[in-house]
Design a protein that fits this description.
heterodimer; A: Ubiquitin-like (UB roll); five-stranded mixed beta sheet; 2 helices; 5 strands; globular; B: 412 residues; six-stranded mixed beta sheet; four-stranded parallel beta sheet
Chain lengths: 99, 412
């Protein structure tokens, strides 16, 4: 890889910890959220399909925060990860039977 | 647990046993409670409900609660007044208008309904600590119910919440934690705390149960109208759950045959400073785009409503509409409700009244429909929202001549 990429911390929610060997916090190296998901998928196979739709977009009930901000209010998967960024992956808190 | 069968994912329909869990581990979709509806329908009756307590617990069999032999933690929530609102109706041009005044619950908001369910479920699962992420009303309700249940309590709120709302929670002896962010930040941090601390968060890991409590708003409305549903309801939208649950609540009663077949239009109200659902509706979009909230209606200031898209679909499929109200219109709405119907509501109620006015003026509510506006919180929670400007408040010397002078100058 030509450019240097920074290390970021990623918080993993409880329902995905079976993919990370029980770890609630992992590290990854990437410049963008898209790159981070690629890197995490390489290390923890199966993670991508839990976070993204088949077209690659973030699933409706998945929220990702970079430091304080919801990536949907930033540039989505193209959000740039500043050095040392804290990335949180969280299922949206929704509920209510609709069927 | 009564007629409960388990939990099911709304998205992929994977099934789970009953537990404090709100997320599908397969697809991260939201979980919902599943009832044994056939057994429920055979076991419950309208007559039994009518002989029940004058509280939300008259609908106990329709709620996701622990089995009957454990006494419920109960603050006396629900069966709040459904009032004919002819004066406000005249102002809005609506001939059959009602107010469901849920501002008179034990902690002065509708949140007692959802927390009433959550606290009892938390106890049945053996939790010792009850917690929540809150814009204020939920915090007070969680704190009060935890006090009654003898549970430890932590409530997490945005740092800039109205002082009255903080006192309204802290007085019950809970731990209030202000987080330096808006509600969406609080919600996020609480999701992480819930994962790591093993606490019962009323509106996070208990959400599938908690959210069902809102249905009692619909059950009561139908019973108080003489076992029929209104033609049209107007509900505030924060996270999007209440409006959706009320629509479902009227459907439940139709399915049970307790009210005639028919249809209820569901309309939503948001503040213009935080209107992700209403703007999606008005712009004809299917998706709800998150916003950064900036409104005096802090109890509705959820920029990324998790149930926003479900609420949007509920509004559209029911033939309802959505509107938004500016801060000035919200204050005017509070004053209009107070001066016409004698009900002092918080900012969220101002949003509902102001949006109902817009919907009526825009022809989105038929003047002959039976309409119910849901007033979900008490005005004493946000007294500072209503400035004294324009209100009739005068000070005079303490003698009758001064008063006579005041009256004659008023006449002149």
């Amino acid at each position: 890889m030509a450019t240097e990429v920074s290390e970021v911390t990623v918080r993993i929610p409880a329902p995905l910890r079976n993919l990370t060997g029980g770890q609630g916090r992992v590290t990854g190296h990437a410049q963008s959220l898209r790159g981070l998901i690629d890197a995490l998928e390489a290390e923890y196979p199966g993670l991508r399909e839990r976070l993204c739709n088949q077209d690659g977009s973030l699933c409706q009930y998945v929220n990702v925060f970079v430091n304080e901000d919801d990536v949907r209010l930033l540039q989505g998967l193209d959000t740039v990860l500043p050095p040392g960024a804290r990335v949180s992956i969280l299922p949206a808190v929704a509920g209510g039977s609709t069927d | 647990m009564s007629f409960l069968q388990g939990l099911r994912c709304r998205i992929c329909h994977a099934e789970y046993p009953l537990s404090a869990n709100h997320v599908c581990s397969a697809c991260l979709g939201p979980l919902e409670v599943v009832y044994d509806w056939d057994r429920l329908a055979r076991s419950v009756s309208r007559q039994a409900v009518e002989h029940g307590p004058y509280s939300m617990w008259r609908y106990r069999d329709l709620l996701p609660l622990p089995d009957g032999d454990v006494p419920l933690i109960d603050l006396g929530t629900g069966f709040t007044p459904l009032l004919r609102a002819d004066n406000l109706g005249k102002a809005l041009g609506l001939r059959h208008l009602y107010i469901k005044n849920d501002a008179v619950n034990p902690t002065y908001s509708f949140k007692d309904r959802v927390v009433g369910v959550a606290v009892n479920v938390a106890r049945s699962f053996g939790f010792k600590t009850l917690a929540c992420a809150s814009t204020g009303n939920l915090a007070a309700s969680v704190a009060a119910h935890a006090a009654k249940a003898g549970m430890d309590c932590y409530v997490f709120i945005p740092w800039d919440l109205e002082p009255a709302k903080i006192v309204n929670a802290a007085v019950y002896g809970c731990n209030v934690v202000k987080l330096r962010g808006d509600y969406d930040h609080v919600n996020r941090v609480c999701s992480e705390i819930a994962d790591n601390f093993g606490w019962a968060f009323a509106n996070i890991n208990l959400r599938p149960f908690y959210a069902e409590g809102s249905k009692t708003l619909a059950y009561e409305t139908a019973e108080q109208l003489g076992w029929r549903a209104p033609d049209h309801i107007v509900s505030p939208i924060a996270g999007g759950s209440v409006l959706t649950k009320m629509a479902r609540g009227f459907e439940d009663l139709r399915q049970l045959g307790w009210i005639p077949a028919g249809h209820t239009r569901v309309s939503g109200a948001q503040a213009a400073g935080c209107a992700p659902v209403s703007s999606a509706f008005l712009e004809g979009r299917e998706h709800v785009t998150p916003v950064r909230p900036n409104t005096i209606a802090k109890s509705l200031a959820i920029g990324n409503p998790a149930d926003g898209e479900v609420a949007l679909r509920t509004i559209r499929t029911s033939g309802g509409a959505a509107e938004m109200a500016t801060d000035d219109e919200i204050v005017a709405g509070i004053r209009l409700l107070a001066s016409t119907e004698g009900i002092f509501t918080e900012t969220a109620g101002g949003v509902t009244v102001a949006c109902a006015q817009r919907l009526a003026e825009g022809g989105k509510i038929d003047p002959d429909e039976t309409v119910v506006l849901y007033i979900t919180g008490n005005g004493l929670k946000t007294p500072d929202a209503v400035t004294t400007a324009g209100l009739s408040i005068r000070e005079i010397p303490a003698d009758i001549e001064a008063f006579e002078a005041m009256m004659s100058s008023a006449v002149a």
